[in-house]
Prior knowledge:
The structure is a single chain. The chain is an alpha+beta fold. It is built from eleven helices and 14 strands. The protein folds into two domains: 15-55 and 226-414, no CATH class; 65-223, no CATH class. A hairpin with a 2-residue loop joins strand 8 (206-207) and strand 9. Residues 1-14 have low confidence and may be disordered.
Amino acid sequence: MKRIVWILVFLGASVANAKCMIPNEKSSVDFLKSNQKNCLIQARFLGEQPVRSDAKFFESLVTPSTKSSLLNNTAVHCRFIYQQQNGASSKFRCVRTDSDNRLFDSRGELVAEAFTLISDGDDIFLGDELNRKLISSVTGKPRKAQVLKVRYSKWDGRHIENYTSSAASRILWALGVPAHSHIMTEKIICFGCEKDPFRGQKQPLKKGGQFALQEFPEASIEFKFDGKRMYSPLEKPWDWKQVNSLLPYASEQKRIEVEVFALITHFLTFTSTNSLQNALVCVQKSKIDESVCDDVVAMSHDIGAAFGTRIGTLRGKDHPRGDIQAYRKNTIFKKGTCQFNYQKSDGSVPMSFSKKAQTYFLERAKILDEQVLKTIFQASRLGRLNLVGANRNISTAEDQWVSAILEKIQEIAEAPCQ
């Protein structure tokens, strides 16, 4: 028995002391795999919570701080640019412009001398009238364009992630859970977009030599979590099976964090079971060696399936999302237990929830009072969805969403966790 304990201690120390390196284009497959384990054991699943008493709390709750200077629920102009889109929800990429189709750079500055867009690998650069990259007078480097990832709706019960992602991202921010930020717009006005550009469109649409204009009402804009993405989705950043295999070597605080994160995926009903939907992000490079990451975050980058259920399906395929009846109907835990209710769909996600994790979550969840939740659902416009029943009053629908979230928190509080 002592031998087993010492082996576990030795293995735990070895894993914990291994450095998390930032991969590059020359990294081998073997390196990526071993480094992934090193990064995951050091990764945190939670961050610091915002302080509700801060003067700018509600401002940040509605409009997350980004380099874009964009405000929530305003009209935004952009120009279509093709980039490969993953996933199945309707989305496209475009470069931010003003109403005259003048381009912005990645710092949010309007660049009058920019006329063209130049794709170079994963980057989009601003070009002059001769399609030459514009060089920054400050950095001496080519100026990147401000690329927007736009989610738009088809109001069919499936392609509504502009609403669900906007609401879920603000709840996660309030809870201190790392996630991409989403801003809801009044509308996106796109130069060169087709009516439904997802997947099919590869080039800007022009009519009579001019960019065609297309509006996308209540579209959302996604902004990446601040940091360096360490693995692409196709490199399968992390999954729950890997997390579970490393937990025996982790601290108690790390195990609590993992349980709380697993709970939150059930609380909001988005999925993190597919490694393609997860991410490892370096938020702080080593000051001694920039190839080493000193602070790495494990997160889910796909939260669009929130506010529905993981049990039922739409047309035999996708889980309902943004559906208050489905969200309210299904419980987080099996009756009379602290075992998660979605075990069939969740595979290797931890199946039980401890008393310490319960207490830790409920302390964080205190921030989600009626005023905060009402603000979130107003800003995200989730209450405007009319998927079930007759026309509803928007304010009443928002109040129903507030009540639904508070009911889930109460369910967690009453669960008999040990």
